[in-house]
Design goal:
This is Type-5 uracil-DNA glycosylase. It holds the Pfam family UDG. GO terms for molecular function: 4 iron, 4 sulfur cluster binding; DNA-deoxyinosine glycosylase activity; metal ion binding; uracil DNA N-glycosylase activity. Residues 45-215 form the Uracil-DNA glycosylase-like domain. The chain is built from seven helices and seven strands; from the N terminus they run αβααβββαβαββαα. It is an alpha/beta fold. The chain has one domain: Uracil-DNA glycosylase-like domain (Uracil-DNA Glycosylase, subunit E), CATH 3.40.470. The strands form two sheets. It has a five-stranded mixed beta sheet. A hairpin with a 2-residue loop joins β6 and β7. It binds uracil.
Length: 225
């Protein structure tokens, strides 16, 4: 994964790179000065980057969730299902209470987003994802024990493939599809899931059981690699 310009794994909270997202941030700051309103940093385990074996790549912060609280998926509807499932499978400890100070910690896992700033209507443009990608590349490069990348949704899948320097056609997105990949020569897996969004769970595209099945695959892969 090339990172020729030595981009850090986390953008500055007031990252200026995407004009539309900066405008939207300013609007939110004006209306809600008490919210986080910045590029949301990845959330990792207390032991640090070296302890991360699983990284979960979401799409982008929700306006009243991660953009408000400053922690990925925290306060977002999608976070209720994500954190409950991670707790059940041993990738988180404590209690999730939709607040960054709820005391929840991650275990062997990290959560990040393909785009770090909240986009209007939850829809980042392709250009914004491209602009934000060096941070994803750098983030993936920063994890020496990484074995499994979980992609939440097709956009995350596509951006992760690009971050890995792979063609988007190289791996087909599918719910609970497990793909063998190599991370700097080390065997690893990329595992897809439908995004745990309110829309997907309300329409029945994604059930709790289906989401759980993906974490079963993740645990199997982590054991096998
Ligand atoms: N919140 C996030 O942080 N990421 C998502 O993909 C959705 C909600």
């Amino acid at each position: 994964m090339a990172n020729p310009e030595n981009i850090p794994p986390e953008p500055a909270p007031d990252c200026p790179l995407c004009p539309r997202l900066v405008d939207y941030r300013r609007e939110n700051e004006a209306a809600h000065p008490d919210w986080f309103n910045g590029a949301v940093p990845s959330f990792g385990p207390p032991e640090g980057d070296k302890a991360v074996e699983l990284i979960i790549v979401g799409l982008a912060p929700g306006v009243q969730g991660a953009n408000k609280t400053g922690r990925p998926f925290t306060g977002d509807y999608a976070g209720d299902l994500l954190y409950a499932t991670m707790l059940r499978h041993g990738f988180a400890k404590g209690t999730y209470d939709a607040r960054p100070d709820d005391g929840l910690t991650l275990h062997r896992a990290m959560i990040t987003n393909a785009v770090r700033c909240v986009p209007p209507q939850n829809k980042p443009t392709g250009g914004e994802a491209t602009t934000c990608r060096p941070f994803l590349v750098s983030r993936l490069n920063s994890l020496p024990a990484l074995k499994v990348i979980m992609c939440l949704g097709r956009i995350s899948h596509d951006n992760t493939l690009s971050a890995l320097g792979m063609k988007r056609s190289a791996l087909t997105f599918g719910h609970n599809a497990v793909h063998d990949i190599s991370l700097d020569g080390r065997p690893a897996a990329l595992i897809d899931s439908y995004h745990c969004s309110r829309y997907n769970t309300n329409t029945g595209r994604l059930t709790e059981e289906m989401f759980d099945d993906v974490f079963v695959s993740i645990r199997e892969r982590l054991k096998a690699i």
